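Thread: quick sanity check before group meeting

JM: Hey all, I'm pulling together slides for Thursday and realized we never actually wrote out the predicted structure for the chain we discussed last week. Dropping the sequence here so it's in one place. If anyone has concerns about the input, flag it before I start.
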Amino acid sequence: MPDIGIGASYALDITDQNREQIFKDVYNLIEFLREKGFGYIDIRITFYVPETFKGKTVKQAHDEIPGNFIVAYDSSHLIIIEPQDIKNIRSYKDIANYFGKTYEGIKNDLKSLKAN
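JM (edit): ok, ran it. Output follows.
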């Protein structure tokens, strides 16, 4: 069985309205990889608040500082699904167990609460 590791970064505000679609998309990716016979599947998706990049795309920002990209830009949310987790994913709703806010995402929420 072949192995695959997927790492992706998106500039996207995570909302209640788009969260379910994100989970469905990740689940569809997992199902596709299972159908293709991948045995070892490791998925890491990082979400950044679009304003973080000051009008640049994720690729443009990455090209400017490729070695320090993850350190230079604060992410808001992550999906981390390790190989041992794949067997526990039976529907798109299970993706929620591997989705979370980063430290920066929590700090941004607190700033918003203080502003209101």
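AS: nice. Residues 3-115 form one domain. The helical segments are 16-35, 58-64, 69-72, 103-115.
JM: adding both to the slides.
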